[in-house]
């Protein structure tokens, strides 16, 4: 694959060993150590990446600081031009990057291609939006505030933060990397990418597309390695000016350790799907399948718990069961709906939640079945609040149904979660929908549709343990800049000197 293509310089001998990216070059680590990437389907080593050292991280951040200074002086239109070029290259090479996603994270082939194309579109949109946002400043005059004459003029503009550290998750290692990289670059920052282990090779390929676009050396780096060796070292590094992180619990630890720098964090979710008696049950069932089982439920914005009114619960459960029966299960290469979850430990965790629910009397709508990392889709009915699956995030194709008797009960269960990422409501009554949305402690509420992150320019944020800061292209660009004010003081008018 990579060896015979434009990506040849990334890789060494078979089995493929990939280099890291520093100062515009592909390098081997001086550590001599490698990190194995296990194919979730075969459960065998698929690729290896460099285990970088702290000294290599230091060099990368120093180079990033130097490159950022001149990049900040690069005209905005030139920055945008390079981003458009990178977007085109990314889309052109979608096939080999998608192939990595299939092998590293068992993403179905068609979804893998979609992720790469969407990422290219995000980079292009970001270039355009950046030119619009950053091309404008603000002009203030002093006499608008009581007691002041018009003797001061204030010019404000947005300037870059410096070095942005981007840490994307395994489930969208390309898309959630570019959603951090593109806003950082258009705003005049440099970027250090620390990809997840599963997904690192797809991320390295994506970085190579930026390399081919001709960005200045040192401006973009990609450092691979073990979190235990370089994780804290990176997130606590004094040279880092901003951290954008998407993932799980690690984000809470990072937020406690990081210094006084802007943090953008999207963590887990337990997204509730509330279905009222007047809801369109066919629409709800279709969205539960899409929302709960797409990419085997390994999405922060997946439907994670169904809160359904008792009077319509039996009907809905039957509709969902019929659709679950049609889901195809197998390898990602065959474009199956349900593919292996990312690691054996993930599969074991999901199984633990299922066994807890079984022991406590949940109704299994399908037989629980697992082969290796492959778990068959499972709907659990009559789940009660004392079951772990009611609160914990499985990140797999297992979906609990809690039967409720009132809107208040639905809101209470949704808000009792320590998460608050997204939620959804199915009802034909827009007044009820808005009132419930207002009462839900979540960053986004979808009405009559499953939770979703996109479109990528919509604001995207979580409350409580689901994160801090807001994402979406526009919000990310604003967050990766700071306000600079320049005040012009005029001489005191002669009439004021008497």
Descriptive terms for the model:
single chain; 498 residues; alpha/beta; Aldehyde Dehydrogenase, Chain A, domain 1; Aldehyde Dehydrogenase, Chain A, domain 2; 2 domains; 7-stranded mixed beta sheet; 6-stranded mixed beta sheet; 14 helices; 38% helix; Aldehyde_DH_dom; oxidoreductase
TL;DR of this structure?
By secondary structure, the protein is α/β, with parallel strands linked by helices.
Strand content: 15-25%
Compute the gyration radius: what is it?
25 Å
Number of domains: 2
Unreliable stretches: none
- Number of extended strands: 27
Tally the helices. 14
CATH topology term of the largest domain: Aldehyde Dehydrogenase, Chain A, domain 1
Strand order in the largest sheet: 15-18-19-14-13-21-22
Overall SS class: alpha/beta
- What's the level 1 CATH class of the largest domain? Alpha Beta
| CATH architecture descriptor text of the largest domain | 3-Layer(aba) Sandwich
Kindly report how far apart the N and C termini lie. Answer: 82 Å
* Assigned CATH superfamily of the largest domain: Aldehyde Dehydrogenase, Chain A, domain 1
Mean pLDDT: 96
Q: Give the overall form.
A: globular
